[in-house]
Amino acid sequence: MASAVRNEPRMGASILRLFFHDCFVNGCDGSILLDDTSTFTGEKGAGPNANSARGFEVIDAIKTQVEASCKATVSCADILALAARDGVNLLGGPTWSVPLGRKDSRTASQSAANSNLPGPGSSLATLISMFGNQGLSARDMTALSGAHTIGRSQCQFFRSRIYTESNINASFAALRQQTCPRSGGDANLAPFDVQTADAFDNAYYQNLVSQRGLLHSDQELFNGGSQDALVRQYSTNPSQFSADFVSAMVKMGNLLPSSGTATEVRLNCRKVN
């Protein structure tokens, strides 16, 4: 991970997103890493992942090294959990002890990926509900959303916000419009955090307070609703954010496949043994 983040700081956010998108679909089981086969359509092509989920080759490289020294022992799901933690830490965020022992699923579900992952246009009620479906509280949701202090989003996911919404700082909207036209440029990237794009800090919440949230779903956390007070707290208390983020990451990382699910330790993260 140190090598990957050094080569491309954005990769820390990409791996963190893979972990989140893995855990929300039938538990943290490495299912997002599976390529499609003739017998099932996996999660890579689901709406929330197609042409946006990235970093698979980083996990492959780690897996190759792990297998060389410790064969058939460490699951792809555990590697993803550890890599997500290390990516956060390498970008200046906290570190924590990752509980291990996850197993890899032998299948993946595109339909579950399409239905379980909140979209960029989600309302606060939807966010609270979808995280709640995973046993995560509204506080967990608000803390985990702080992952958007790093990473980028494609223009197609925030275009509506910067051109049509009123709860947005005018200069921020104008800045984002420079690289995200009303039509075209769907894949053009902009940083979630306008202050420190590749530093894991609490600037995301400061941005929300000043109406500089990039996605509609970001600004929903600070828009006259139930999470406003917590966002204000995180915006001025980075240690509180770090503590809550770590707690929520461990909680999310404990999401497991339902009992009876066929699992294994995959030798290649892209395919079943």
Brief write-up:
This protein has 13 helices and 4 strands.
SSE class: mainly alpha
Can you give the helix content as a percent range? 40-55%
Radius of gyration over all CA atoms, rounded: 18 Å
User: Which band does the percent of strand residues land in?
Assistant: under 5%
Can you offer a commentary on this structure?
It is a single chain. With 273 residues, this protein is mostly helical. The protein folds into two domains: 1-117 and 254-264, Peroxidase, domain 1 (Orthogonal Bundle), CATH 1.10.520.10; 138-248, Peroxidase, domain 2 (Orthogonal Bundle). Helices cover 46% and strands 4% of the residues. The protein has helices at residues 2-7, 11-23, 56-69, 76-90, 110-116, 124-132, 138-144, 155-164, 170-177, 203-209, 216-219, 228-236, 238-253, and strands at 104-105, 152-154, 189-191, 263-264. The strands form two sheets. A two-stranded antiparallel sheet has the order 1-4. A two-stranded antiparallel ribbon has the order 2-3. Helix 10 (203-209) crosses helix 12. It starts with a helix and ends in a 9-residue tail after the last strand. The mean pLDDT is 97.
